[in-house]
Protein backbone atom coordinates (compact mmCIF):
# COMPACT_ATOMS: atom_id res chain seq x y z
CA UNK A 1 0.00 0.00 0.00
CA UNK A 2 2.77 2.47 0.90
CA UNK A 3 5.29 3.48 -1.71
CA UNK A 4 7.87 4.65 0.85
CA UNK A 5 11.27 3.00 0.37
CA UNK A 6 13.50 2.65 3.43
CA UNK A 7 17.27 2.93 3.16
CA UNK A 8 19.23 0.43 5.25
CA UNK A 9 20.47 1.65 8.61
CA UNK A 10 24.21 1.59 9.33
CA UNK A 11 24.82 -1.71 11.14
CA UNK A 12 28.18 -0.66 12.58
CA UNK A 13 26.64 1.83 15.04
CA UNK A 14 23.45 2.26 17.06
CA UNK A 15 21.54 3.75 14.15
CA UNK A 16 17.87 4.69 14.19
CA UNK A 17 15.49 6.76 12.11
CA UNK A 18 13.83 9.89 13.47
CA UNK A 19 10.75 11.61 12.07
CA UNK A 20 10.03 15.32 12.17
CA UNK A 21 6.46 16.55 11.73
CA UNK A 22 6.40 19.58 9.48
CA UNK A 23 4.22 22.57 10.46
CA UNK A 24 0.58 22.69 9.48
CA UNK A 25 -2.88 23.59 10.64
CA UNK A 26 -4.94 21.05 12.56
CA UNK A 27 -6.78 19.69 9.52
CA UNK A 28 -3.79 19.77 7.14
CA UNK A 29 -2.30 16.47 5.99
CA UNK A 30 0.58 15.10 8.04
CA UNK A 31 3.91 15.72 6.32
CA UNK A 32 7.11 14.14 7.62
CA UNK A 33 10.84 14.39 7.20
CA UNK A 34 12.74 11.22 8.17
CA UNK A 35 16.46 11.05 8.86
CA UNK A 36 18.94 8.47 10.07
CA UNK A 37 20.72 9.22 13.34
CA UNK A 38 23.23 7.56 15.62
CA UNK A 39 22.47 7.46 19.32
CA UNK A 40 24.71 6.67 22.27
CA UNK A 41 25.16 7.66 25.88
CA UNK A 42 28.54 9.21 25.03
CA UNK A 43 27.14 11.45 22.27
CA UNK A 44 23.52 12.19 23.15
CA UNK A 45 21.19 13.73 20.60
CA UNK A 46 17.89 15.49 21.19
CA UNK A 47 14.81 13.49 20.27
CA UNK A 48 11.46 12.41 21.66
CA UNK A 49 10.05 8.88 21.65
CA UNK A 50 6.38 8.11 21.14
CA UNK A 51 4.68 5.20 22.88
CA UNK A 52 1.15 4.43 21.73
CA UNK A 53 -1.35 1.63 21.28
CA UNK A 54 -0.81 -0.57 18.24
CA UNK A 55 -4.51 -1.31 17.93
CA UNK A 56 -5.29 -3.73 15.13
CA UNK A 57 -6.58 -1.70 12.25
CA UNK A 58 -7.36 -2.77 8.75
CA UNK A 59 -7.77 0.87 7.79
CA UNK A 60 -4.63 2.86 7.02
CA UNK A 61 -4.20 6.61 6.71
CA UNK A 62 -1.65 8.13 4.29
CA UNK A 63 1.00 10.57 5.42
CA UNK A 64 3.48 12.29 3.13
CA UNK A 65 7.24 12.01 3.41
CA UNK A 66 8.92 14.95 1.68
CA UNK A 67 12.53 14.52 2.80
CA UNK A 68 14.42 11.35 3.60
CA UNK A 69 17.99 11.41 4.81
CA UNK A 70 18.54 14.89 3.41
CA UNK A 71 17.07 14.09 0.00
CA UNK A 72 13.83 15.52 -1.34
CA UNK A 73 11.28 12.80 -1.98
CA UNK A 74 7.56 12.74 -2.66
CA UNK A 75 6.25 9.51 -1.23
CA UNK A 76 3.50 8.12 0.93
CA UNK A 77 3.62 6.05 4.08
CA UNK A 78 0.44 4.47 5.48
CA UNK A 79 -0.11 4.41 9.23
CA UNK A 80 -2.88 3.40 11.62
CA UNK A 81 -5.63 5.90 12.44
CA UNK A 82 -4.51 5.91 16.11
CA UNK A 83 -0.96 6.93 15.15
CA UNK A 84 -2.35 9.52 12.73
CA UNK A 85 -4.41 11.06 15.56
CA UNK A 86 -1.32 11.16 17.77
CA UNK A 87 0.79 12.88 15.09
CA UNK A 88 -1.91 15.40 14.33
CA UNK A 89 -2.23 16.26 18.00
CA UNK A 90 1.54 16.38 18.58
CA UNK A 91 2.09 18.68 15.62
CA UNK A 92 0.27 21.38 17.55
CA UNK A 93 2.10 21.05 20.87
CA UNK A 94 5.72 20.00 20.38
CA UNK A 95 8.65 22.06 19.24
CA UNK A 96 8.75 21.25 15.56
CA UNK A 97 12.52 21.12 15.46
CA UNK A 98 12.62 18.10 17.80
CA UNK A 99 12.48 14.80 15.91
CA UNK A 100 10.45 11.87 17.21
CA UNK A 101 11.21 8.16 17.25
CA UNK A 102 8.05 6.23 16.34
CA UNK A 103 8.43 2.48 16.00
CA UNK A 104 5.88 2.01 13.19
CA UNK A 105 7.60 4.68 11.09
CA UNK A 106 11.22 4.49 12.21
CA UNK A 107 11.60 0.72 11.98
CA UNK A 108 11.14 -0.81 8.54
CA UNK A 109 8.19 -3.08 9.34
CA UNK A 110 8.72 -5.02 6.10
CA UNK A 111 12.32 -6.00 6.95
CA UNK A 112 12.47 -8.86 9.47
CA UNK A 113 16.26 -8.53 9.76
CA UNK A 114 16.01 -4.88 10.72
CA UNK A 115 13.20 -5.60 13.17
CA UNK A 116 15.32 -8.33 14.77
CA UNK A 117 18.05 -5.73 15.39
CA UNK A 118 15.88 -2.74 16.34
CA UNK A 119 13.21 -4.29 18.59
CA UNK A 120 15.70 -5.47 21.25
CA UNK A 121 17.11 -1.91 21.28
CA UNK A 122 13.77 -0.25 22.01
CA UNK A 123 14.45 -0.05 25.74
CA UNK A 124 17.62 1.93 25.05
CA UNK A 125 15.86 4.07 22.44
CA UNK A 126 13.25 5.08 25.01
CA UNK A 127 15.84 5.49 27.79
CA UNK A 128 18.07 7.78 25.70
CA UNK A 129 15.18 9.98 24.52
CA UNK A 130 14.83 13.42 26.07
CA UNK A 131 11.19 12.69 26.74
CA UNK A 132 8.82 9.79 26.12
CA UNK A 133 5.35 10.81 25.02
CA UNK A 134 2.55 8.37 25.78
CA UNK A 135 -0.53 8.49 23.55
CA UNK A 136 -3.47 6.66 25.13
CA UNK A 137 -5.68 7.04 22.09
CA UNK A 138 -8.42 9.24 20.89
CA UNK A 139 -12.01 9.22 22.02
CA UNK A 140 -13.43 10.07 18.61
CA UNK A 141 -13.27 13.83 19.20
CA UNK A 142 -10.66 16.25 17.97
CA UNK A 143 -8.98 16.46 21.36
CA UNK A 144 -8.64 12.79 22.31
CA UNK A 145 -7.09 11.63 25.54
CA UNK A 146 -3.35 11.76 25.92
CA UNK A 147 -0.52 11.92 28.39
CA UNK A 148 2.73 13.82 28.05
How would you characterize the overall build of this protein?
The protein has 148 residues and is an alpha/beta fold. It has one domain. Helices cover 20% and strands 30% of the residues. The chain has helices at 81-91, 103-106, 112-118, 122-128, and strands at residues 15-21, 31-38, 48-52, 61-68, 71-79, 100-102, 131-135. The strands form 2 sheets. A 4-stranded mixed β-sheet has the order 1-2-4-5. Strands 6-3-7 form a 3-stranded parallel β-sheet, sandwiched between helices. It is globular, with a radius of gyration of 15 Å. Mean pLDDT is 88; it is low at 139-148.
Cα-based radius of gyration, to the nearest Å: 15 Å
Report strand order across the widest sheet: 1-2-4-5
Number of helices: 4
Number of domains: 1
Query: What is the helix/strand order?
Result: EEEEEHEHHHE
Distance between the termini: 31 Å
Described by strand count, sense and barrel closure, the largest sheet is: 4 strands, mixed
Mean pLDDT: 88
Poorly predicted residue ranges: 139-148
Helix/strand class: alpha/beta
Question: How many extended strands?
Answer: 7
- Helix content range: 10-25%
What general form does the structure show?
globular
Bin the strand percentage. 25-35%
